[in-house]
Amino acid sequence: MEHLWLWLLGALAASYTFVFLILKNLNQWWFITRHGRRYNLPPGDMGWPLIGTLLSFLQAFRSGRPDLFIHQFAYKYGKIGMYKTYLFGSPSVIVTAPEVCRHVLMNDEQFGFGYSKATRILTGGKALNTVPRPEHRRLRRLIASLISGNEALSLYIGHVEGIVVTCLEEWASMKKPVEFLSEMKTVAFKVLLHIFIGANTAAFIDRMEKLYNDFHLGFMSSPVDLPGTTFSRALKARNELIKIFENVLKEKRENLKNKVAENRKKDMTDLLLEVKDEDGQGLDDACIIDLLIGFFFAGHETSAHSIMRAIMFLSENPETLQKAKAEQEQIVKARPADAQHKGLTMKEIKQMEYLYKVIDETLRKTSLAFTLSRETKVDVNLNGSLICISNS
């Protein structure tokens, strides 16, 4: 019996050693073996094989306090502003010190956009975040005027106002509390669908929103395409979205061919089909689809969170709310009594000087992206730590 207890204690000790001293350090050992010891990395935790520290990252993110993930490093290793880890399939360095962040984000010679493998796969090979820099500049020149500026906004004012007013009326008629962020995500999605592809049926909107929910979750996952995984569901959602957009483009090309589109308002996809660069080159269907997928992804969550934050800040600052409301009321009172158009106009939006300040202050106080990712182009010395080139 005594030998059995000794054997069990030995097995437990061996298991502990294997799990916490070998497996837990495998990522770090692999990095050192691959790159040698010339890289003086900051302290930190590279986590378990393959998944690294992804589970603790997701746990903190889903708790509503993503900053807890960073606090864990600060608690263990001190508030030094730099920590090594392993996230989304790659060895990484987390930088939190403002002056170091500024250096990383503003130094284009040493750093480039650094998206996870899952993000690059899901956004597609012709998206803004994956194309080479010259093509990135070309695409930005082509689409900048289509998605921003007064001309673009004037095309969509009526669409946005109609959707928002309808949703507000629906909420007012409800006899239960409204979960504001969830509702704003739906509003943002309705607006985006209407602006980008002219869709407004409830069944189609519901289907697209479900696909994008699966698609969105894949960005915070390891790029493992196995049945039942988050990444696998995201890939399936992307393939479904591609089919939908292919059908949209096919229908719109037929409309252009038959001149059906001349008698209706154009949406973003119509404009993308027509746009040409200085050499007369347009966008192929694969590029348009990747751009649309990216637009929906970028505009959906960020718009909803920005509006939610603005409402929160206004409710916490009643004087600011009253000034913003008074400005809106003054604009409405200034409308001619015989005005046929009852909705917002571009001229009225330009008169909302105080509201613009409220929006700017909301964006200043709100961090819409929890992290910004960069890749090293060369070996970089940051605060005494030598960080190796990403593709070495």
Automatic annotation (TrEMBL):
<dbReference type="InterPro" id="IPR001128">
    <property type="entry name" value="Cyt_P450"/>
</dbReference>
<dbReference type="GO" id="GO:0005506">
    <property type="term" value="F:iron ion binding"/>
</dbReference>
<keyword id="KW-0349">Heme</keyword>
<dbReference type="GO" id="GO:0051777">
    <property type="term" value="F:ent-kaurenoic acid monooxygenase activity"/>
</dbReference>
<dbReference type="GO" id="GO:0005783">
    <property type="term" value="C:endoplasmic reticulum"/>
</dbReference>
<protein>
    <recommendedName>
        <fullName>Cytochrome P450</fullName>
    </recommendedName>
</protein>
<keyword id="KW-0479">Metal-binding</keyword>
<feature type="coiled-coil region">
    <location>
        <begin position="242"/>
        <end position="278"/>
    </location>
</feature>
<dbReference type="Pfam" id="PF00067">
    <property type="entry name" value="p450"/>
</dbReference>
<keyword id="KW-1133">Transmembrane helix</keyword>
<keyword id="KW-0408">Iron</keyword>
<feature type="transmembrane region" description="Helical">
    <location>
        <begin position="44"/>
        <end position="61"/>
    </location>
</feature>
<feature type="transmembrane region" description="Helical">
    <location>
        <begin position="6"/>
        <end position="23"/>
    </location>
</feature>
<dbReference type="GO" id="GO:0016020">
    <property type="term" value="C:membrane"/>
</dbReference>
<dbReference type="GO" id="GO:0048868">
    <property type="term" value="P:pollen tube development"/>
</dbReference>
<dbReference type="GO" id="GO:0020037">
    <property type="term" value="F:heme binding"/>
</dbReference>
<keyword id="KW-0560">Oxidoreductase</keyword>
<keyword id="KW-0812">Transmembrane</keyword>
<comment type="similarity">
    <text>Belongs to the cytochrome P450 family.</text>
</comment>
<keyword id="KW-0175">Coiled coil</keyword>
<dbReference type="InterPro" id="IPR036396">
    <property type="entry name" value="Cyt_P450_sf"/>
</dbReference>
<keyword id="KW-0472">Membrane</keyword>
